[in-house]
Specification:
By secondary structure, this protein is of the alpha+beta class. It has 6 helices and 8 strands, in the order H-H-H-E-E-E-E-E-E-E-E-H-H-H. Helix 1 packs across helix 2, helix 1 packs across helix 5 and helix 5 runs antiparallel to helix 6. The chain is elongated and about 65 Å long.
Amino acid sequence: PACEGRIGETMKIGEIKLQALALIFPSAQLEYASDNISDAIFRLKSNPNYSAHLSATTGAINRALSIIEARRLTAIDEIELDKSLGEINGDLLCFTLNDDVFSICQVISGGIEIDFRHRFDKLYVRRGSARGSLRVRYFTKIKRLSGESDDNEELLLNQSIAEQIPYFVKADLLLCESPEEARESREMFFTALDSFFTEEALQKTTY
């Protein structure tokens, strides 16, 4: 179903970086222990053979996350909104949403799924369809990486989806120096995402 949760096992940021480098440098035999990721990253930053590529992984991972988010393959959460919190706008009620809402997939009120409109940080429902409270289920935004991100931090993504990110990172970093290899890796990333993506994951089209 469209609102089925997807988070189980996941991956650490540093694991994605290291796996991407392993794809770019297959003969380097980059080895690391899951409990020693920071040390492995530190050693690579000090190695001129890998430091430039490693520094570029943050931006590439963020671009991959934007694509995954746009395809609504992120975690699913829900909030409860009391009808009294809605601002009246004609025959509609308007609610202000949390910052982590990317796309709403379902709104239930009085045990019945109701139509809605989602624009930016606002949720609109018809006044007559709101009965007491609204249970809103939504695809979450993914926190983006920065230079200060902890490599031991886990991404809020299912592992089977997170495991595809190194292929995008490889494609992104090799775009100029090895365009054919980059194209193949990019295709692998998008083919994998297509296997997770279904029409049911699309946001509902409503009034």
